[in-house]
Design brief:
The protein is α/β, with parallel strands linked by helices. 53% of the residues lie in helices and 12% in strands. A 4-stranded parallel beta sheet has the order 2-1-3-4, with helices on both faces. Helix 1 links the parallel strand 1 and strand 2. Helix 6 packs across helix 7. The longest helix is centred in the middle third of the chain and has 36 residues. It starts with a strand and ends with a helix.
């Protein structure tokens, strides 16, 4: 039986508790069962935009490290837009995985992962449409925010880390570990070991620590 990892992604923190992960997991499990594939591990990208480069995503980076270390060579995703909504990022990610001898399978469009010219062209066309859909959604949200700001004089967005109760103490812990000379990945590992959870009750990664510390320094928090 072939072994594989499952990679799931939702774009916004508000979607983490929705049905996105449930839907993706069900599609991947159905494909795996039909093709005699055993899912040995699942990687969930929580609240990460599909335009973010793959290696800047905490769960994807963790998955690549696992792929290099335990012999699994295949990754299953629900659809291409779960890999990326940016066609350049999509193609670079597929290319880089192939370079290391790994394969990625979109269970909704498995034939499109082949590298012959016609399938590659169609895959890229779908990536263009996914990018267009993303840009359209962003434009609509921007317009809604502008209308709300014009009507009410303000528009609340996602609160930066440190806004909610208890998050300031977490930032101080990050700073203390940083002052001890620890890198971002080691800070994340230390906080995970201490049982400190992220805002979404998940695990810390170095990329997240770096982003939060940088933002807090810029704002003087």
């Amino acid at each position: 039986m072939q072994k594989a990892f499952a990679y799931l992604r939702v774009s916004g923190q508000s979607q983490v508790a929705g049905d996105g992960f449930t839907r993706q997991r069900a599609a991947i499990k159905a494909y795996a069962a039909a093709h005699d594939i055993k899912i040995t591990r699942e990687f969930r990208e929580e609240g990460v935009s599909g335009t973010v480069e793959s290696m800047n995503r905490p769960a994807f980076s963790e998955m690549m490290t696992a792929l290099h270390g335990n012999g699994v060579r295949t990754v299953l995703i629900e659809r291409l837009d779960r890999l990326s909504r940016d066609v350049v990022t999509q193609e670079i990610t597929i290319r880089d995985m192939r370079r290391y001898g790994f394969s990625i399978v979109s269970v909704a469009e498995p034939d499109l992962m082949e590298n012959d010219p016609s399938r590659k062209a169609f895959r890229q066309m779908m990536g263009v449409f996914a990018e267009f859909e993303k840009d359209t959604i962003v434009a609509k949200l921007r317009g809604a925010r502008m209308r709300k700001r014009a009507q009410e004089g303000r528009c609340e967005g996602r609160k930066p880390y440190g806004h909610f109760e208890g998050e300031g103490a977490v930032i101080e812990r990050m700073r203390a570990l940083r002052a001890e000379g620890l890198g971002f990945d080691r800070i994340a590992a230390a906080m995970n070991a201490e049982g400190i959870k992220t805002r979404t009750r998940g695990r810390w990664h170095g990329v997240m620590v770096n982003r939060i510390l940088k933002a807090s320094e810029e704002k003087g928090v």
